[in-house]
């Protein structure tokens, strides 16, 4: 639907600005008038703002800021609509601003906060919806929002650490490979002609490099097609049920990175389940929601078995032990939590422990990857230099 920018005055004489979605400008005006607002200005939203909204995305840090700000203001006794107006003016994300305005309009129509958020399933996940619903029913919405803010802030920190650990090695690898390919395609052919005039017997490394260069220059179009075909096949296969299961198993079994990936999932599982249980969400619903916080099919199958066992009135400890993916510590603490009635707080503590493990592994990984990349680039450059220098030495020694 079209998006309109408005400037209105409320019954207190205060001006407000924002955006609204409607079928046409008349419908937008009617919606604003129904809220008791006097329209000062209403026009079509600028194309640049629409494009900003289209290309922007709502990240965990945006949800963290939203929930934390709302939680503080709700606990301070500020009405939810007024709190949303404050957050709307502070956010610089066009998509988030648009969603906040729609939620605010929905609240003014008499809907609950839960139902207002539920209209935006691509922005607010099931965890946030269930915790908001539990908070509204229990009269502790502010506390639930603060918990959600902490949860999304930790999710953001994990993603940023992974990104920071992998950005430098990825850039070094791409630049190195690009430089080598450009050298092989544009510089080596000229050097090969010169070598052909100077010497007939070339060293083995030089022959390998010249052959590789010849293959790339002759069959470059075929190589590109093979790479594209391979990438498309991998993507399509990984989206199938069998392929996704295989890829997910490789992710958690891959040397060095597999254990890290597993700990990230376990930390998220413990924190999410503990937070939901602490918010009063029934354990069956909590397990179902928690299973959606990971896209790893191996963990999802294990959580589905836990949910089936709990549905039969049994403990979830045994499925956790038999899963082969959850550490013994998680199952043991779950058992203690079930026996003491403190499952939620113990799970959060376990989640914090594994998050600390992830942080330490991330720091160690970045320290390991950098020297490995230097060794790789050094070996690659060394082979190129050796391949180009050896023929020159052979020719010089022949005189």
Q: What order do the SSEs take from the amino end to the carboxyl end, as H and E?
A: EEHEHHHHHHHHHHHHHHHH
Q: Whole-number radius of gyration?
A: 29 Å
What is the typical, i.e. mean, pLDDT? 81
Using DSSP, what is the number of strands? 3
Described by strand count, sense and barrel closure, the largest sheet is:
3 strands, antiparallel
Distance between the termini: 81 Å
Query: Domains counted in the coordinates: how many?
Result: 2
Q: Any idea of the CATH topology of the largest domain?
A: Receptor-associated Protein
Q: Helical segment tally?
A: 17
CATH class of the largest domain: Mainly Alpha
Shape: extended
- Per CATH, the superfamily of the largest domain is Type II secretion system (T2SS), domain F
Q: What's a concise summary of this model?
A:
This protein has 399 residues and is mainly alpha-helical. The chain has helices at residues 25-34, 47-55, 60-75, 80-90, 94-108, 113-118, 126-138, 141-198, 204-218, 220-239, 241-253, 257-278, 283-291, 297-311, 317-323, 328-340, 343-397, and strands at residues 3-9, 15-21, 38-44.
């Amino acid at each position: 639907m079209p998006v309109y920018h408005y400037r209105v005055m409320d019954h207190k004489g205060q001006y407000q600005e924002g955006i609204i979605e409607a079928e046409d400008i008349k419908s937008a005006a009617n919606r604003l008038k129904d809220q008791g607002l006097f329209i000062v200005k209403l026009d079509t939203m600028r194309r640049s703002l629409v494009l900003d909204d289209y290309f922007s995305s709502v990240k965990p840090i945006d949800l963290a800021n939203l929930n934390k700000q709302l939680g503080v203001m709700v606990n301070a006794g500020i009405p939810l609509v007024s709190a949303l107006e404050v957050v709307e003016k502070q956010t610089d994300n066009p998509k988030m601003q648009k969603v906040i305005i729609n939620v605010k309009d929905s609240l003014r129509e008499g809907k609950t906060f839960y139902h207002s958020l539920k209209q935006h399933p691509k922005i607010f996940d099931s965890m946030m919806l269930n915790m908001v619903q539990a908070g509204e029913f229990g009269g502790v919405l502010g506390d639930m929002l603060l918990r959600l803010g902490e949860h999304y802030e930790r999710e953001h920190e994990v993603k940023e650490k992974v990104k920071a650990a992998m950005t430098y090695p990825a850039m070094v690898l791409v630049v190195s490979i690009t430089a080598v390919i450009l050298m092989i395609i544009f510089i080596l052919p000229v050097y090969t002609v010169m070598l052909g005039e100077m010497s007939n017997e070339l060293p083995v490394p030089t022959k390998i490099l010249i052959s590789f260069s010849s293959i790339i220059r002759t069959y470059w179009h075929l190589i590109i097609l093979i790479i594209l075909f391979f990438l498309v096949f991998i993507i399509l296969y990984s989206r199938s049920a069998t392929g996704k299961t295989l890829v997910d198993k490789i992710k958690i079994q891959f040397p060095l990175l597999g254990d890290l990936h597993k700990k990230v999932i376990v930390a998220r599982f413990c924190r999410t389940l503990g937070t939901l249980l602490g918010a009063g969400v029934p354990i069956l619903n909590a397990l179902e929601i928690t299973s959606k916080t990971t896209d790893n099919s191996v963990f999802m199958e294990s959580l589905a078995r836990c949910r089936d066992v709990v549905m039969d009135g049994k403990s979830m400890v045994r499925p956790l032990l038999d899963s082969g993916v959850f550490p013994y510590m998680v199952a043991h603490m779950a058992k203690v939590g079930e026996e003491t009635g403190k499952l939620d707080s113990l799970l959060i503590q376990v989640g914090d422990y594994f998050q600390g493990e992830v942080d330490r592994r991330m720091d160690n990984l970045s320290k390991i990857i950098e020297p490995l990349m230097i060794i790789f680039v050094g070996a690659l450059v060394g082979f190129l230099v050796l391949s180009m220098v050896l023929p020159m030495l052979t020719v010089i020694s022949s005189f």
